TrEMBL record:
GO terms for cellular component: plasma membrane. It catalyses: a quaternary ammonium(out) + ATP + H2O = a quaternary ammonium(in) + ADP + phosphate + H(+). It comes from Antarcticimicrobium sediminis. InterPro entries: AAA+_ATPase, ABC_osmolyte_uptake_ATP-bind, ABC_transporter-like_ATP-bd, ABC_transporter-like_CS, Gly-betaine_transp_ATP-bd, P-loop_NTPase. This is Quaternary amine transport ATP-binding protein. It is an enzyme of class 7 (translocase). It is found in: Cell inner membrane. One of its GO terms (molecular function) is ABC-type quaternary ammonium compound transporting activity. Residues 39-278 form the ABC transporter domain. The lineage of its organism: Bacteria, Pseudomonadati, Pseudomonadota, Alphaproteobacteria, Rhodobacterales. Its EC number is 7.6.2.9.
Amino acid sequence: MRPSLAAKPGPQPVKIACRNLWKIYGPPLKRDLAPGPGADPEDFAQALRATGRIPALMDASFEVHEGEIFVIMGLSGSGKSTLIRCLTRLIDAEFGEVRLDGEDLMAAKPRDLINIRRHKMGMVFQNFGLMPHLNVLDNVAYPLKLQGLTRSEREARARQMISLVGLEGREDALPHRLSGGQQQRVGIARSLAVEPDLWFLDEPFSALDPMIRRQMQDEFLDLQRRLHKTIVFITHDIAEACRLADRIAILRDGRIIQIGTPADLLLRPADDYVAKFTADISPSSILRVGDIAEPGQDTTGAREVAADQPVEALLADIATGTTEFSVLPAGKYGGGTLSAARVLRILARQNDGTDGA
């Protein structure tokens, strides 16, 4: 019996959210210089610039759901790292709010923030940040020492994390004895050792060679399938973003231009800037069947395909004459129908006039 067409599952609870976040560099702000309710952010930004200030982050708002990989991307200087540092309060925003599990982080006292970072947040940065005088085991165990765990407790958990990232046998190695990819694995293991609720990664793979970078992306996705972390991931690489993300936020000059799934950005870019970002991405390698399926019952005699299959998996059938597909619910996708003509139009980036795709 054929599965019934199922609706897409609803979003998970919100893990972290920011509302109308501003980060401004320059002279201290006067009391009367603040974004008014309902005011155009660009007007306020212009007023700031006129006084010699730099709005590095402008009116940023979004939510990240539990278990989601939320990627923030943009060109160098767009505000990506500023945003992630405001979310963790490594730097303070001038306006707006950040909430973790509903708690107002902007109001948290310094000691509370330290405890939140030590127990709820994991962070991985581009430069790895390993301590050169400590071996792999001690590097991974170090944040657990700050938590006050005994030596036996922290070494036991550190060994688990080292095994998780595939570095068994290298526990005694110093960082300079490791390759770039191995050093990054140590950084990942160390950030996971505290068993964080929320995992921040700021361009963690950008310093790696392309082949190692691809391997690390594979391992990252494998880790996420096993651990189901809530992740905020920074990158300037649209191919990496599309490969890893559940949703992507694109920044330009401190403003969020569009938030959506990789399919949203490919099929329905908000403007020419977003379209240029995705221009070199092959839709067939990113899109899933469920991204472009249309509502409706299955077509008699149509080829059955799972909604979570990549679109490129259909090309062989289309080449041999298949014209209609019955899309079965799978993963996060519901079912529907899909024609070969629609597949080819979308892959050719031609709008079929039905849904902007």
